[in-house]
Design brief:
By secondary structure, this protein is mainly α. It is built from 3 helices and no strands.
Length: 123
């Protein structure tokens, strides 16, 4: 971690800091696994797997596990790139972004979806 000041972690060194970092990266891996499961087809490779019918189930399961692991590693790499190249926001910038942009945009989206459900043909 290249940050000189890491928020509440500034007081910690050695083992407590290591535990914070392990927790952070475990959360990132969990988030990558959830992205893979919910949005990227999980263990489905995206192409026909008829060739797995002639192999033992254990080998087929290892193949599916490898597909899932490759997708998780891909998303972990993408998140690591974003963490490395995108500058961090200050707290006041995050609050302004949340209250003045994200909240109104989400309210407009809720109204749009509700209107679509009520007024759409066949809805």
């Amino acid at each position: 971690e290249s940050e000189l000041v890491a928020g509440y972690q500034v007081e910690y060194s050695s083992t407590p800091y290591l535990l914070f970092m392990i927790g952070e990266y475990a959360n990132i891996v969990f988030m990558c696994a959830m992205i893979t499961l919910l949005f990227c087809g999980g263990w489905n490779p995206g192409f026909p797997t008829d060739f797995l019918n002639s192999v033992p189930a254990f080998v087929a399961n290892l193949f599916y596990l490898a597909v899932f692991a490759v997708k998780v590693v891909f998303w972990f790499f993408m998140i690591a790139l974003v963490k490395a190249f995108v500058p961090r926001y200050r707290y006041d910038q995050l609050m302004r972004l949340g209250w003045k942009i994200f909240l109104p945009a989400s309210l407009v989206a809720v109204v749009f979806v509700a209107a679509w459900r009520v007024f759409a043909v066949g809805g």
